[in-house]
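Lab channel / #folding
Pinned by the channel admin:
"Please post every new chain as: sequence first, then the structure tokens as a reply. Keep commentary short and put observations after the output so the thread stays searchable."

First post following the new format, from NK:
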Amino acid sequence: MSLRQACDCFAAYFHERDYQGVHSPIIMAALRIADYLQVQPERAPHSALQIHRLRSPFSAGEWRVHQSVRNITPADNDPEAIYVDAKPSSVETFLKFQSWARSFQLELDATWASLGEVYGRFSQQGFDKFGLRLRRLRTSVDNVEQFSRTVDYVPAQIAFEASNADLLSLLIGPLYGEKPEIGLRELIQNSVDAVRERTHIEGESPSEKLNGHDTDVLVCPLVDQEKVQAIVVEDRGIGMDVEILQNYFLKAGASFRNSPQWKKTFTSEEGYSEIARTGRFGVGALAGFLLGDTIQVETRRLGEALGVTFDAELDHESIELKHCNRNIGTKITIKISEDKQSEITRLFDLASESRRWDWYCLQTPKLLRLDVSGDEILPEFQFTEEEEWVYVEIPSIGPAVWANKSTKQPDQFSQKARCLYVNGIYVQDLYRYTEHSPSHS
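Reply from TO:
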């Protein structure tokens, strides 16, 4: 929450400037600025790392930023500025420090504006003393060209980027082997992970229904003239907000589950994921375009009052996000391309032997599959709670489970029993199955 928002909230219940002689806006401003200024290396002593190694990548990065700061002093010839002398040892630390410096200056600007709104018109009454001395931040990395001469790396944000929508469209087909059903797998993975994340935060499974169904994830076709015109993948998971949509969901290869924000919430102090994950590479939104040219998204993040909805095509120059009222979770509707309608219709036809899109085999989170008539499709293969799961802890990913047992299902399901599933999602067939195959995989 910004200081301006905090002052507005305070004014809604108490006097805007003071309450019982206490000037809360001043205290809030001082606390925020002091928190930014506490970046000295003494806060993260190097000697402590020699005794205890930080396993969280996010924490380790923050410590390196503190260690890069050599001194904090008043700026020369500028009584309203402070100077931070830092020498980051790597480009990663440089970018983190640069981000901190930008955020600090924005906080100073916003604080001056907020205090001016609260106290400015009362300056004649002596309230002008409630200003800040600091107005500007100066650092040793402000002049990047000059700083680059002091280090052995190029201090700049350099990374692979997708240049335009044409490149994305070229990547989609080869990336997934021209198999439209894989688009469903990616969306199902994202939905299952989102439900696990919400359950992890709330401590219990979500209770609201999806279109009248008591399920965590719903996959159903929308049929017109005996052909599937669209496919809906809906979940009651943790949902997305504008920041996640803009910086991760709509950006090729950018996975929110690899972000510092996600890791702070869902990883242990040792840096391990506390929930089982299936999606990993940030390609779920792109996968939808294997099925059609247009996707419709409705989503609401846990903790947000309103949801967000939009339509998207690969060649759109801009996407308009609109606020909407909906339950927590995400609903993605993919309009099927005309040339794929017959193939997708066969995938959802109970009379067809083709069930290639059924990638999920767990009972929790619950996945409900509907056919072209709106009837429930029983899973092609599903492990029961009595299965003897084997748990494997994988660094940076978290717990993974696998199972491969002699099935008691009818013969037509036997081949699926000889497949490797990781956290409930089909990975590959085990044509040369041995007792040790899953652990090697």
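NK: Residues 405-417, 433-441 have pLDDT under 50 and may be disordered.
TO: also worth noting, DSSP finds 14 helices and 15 strands in the chain.
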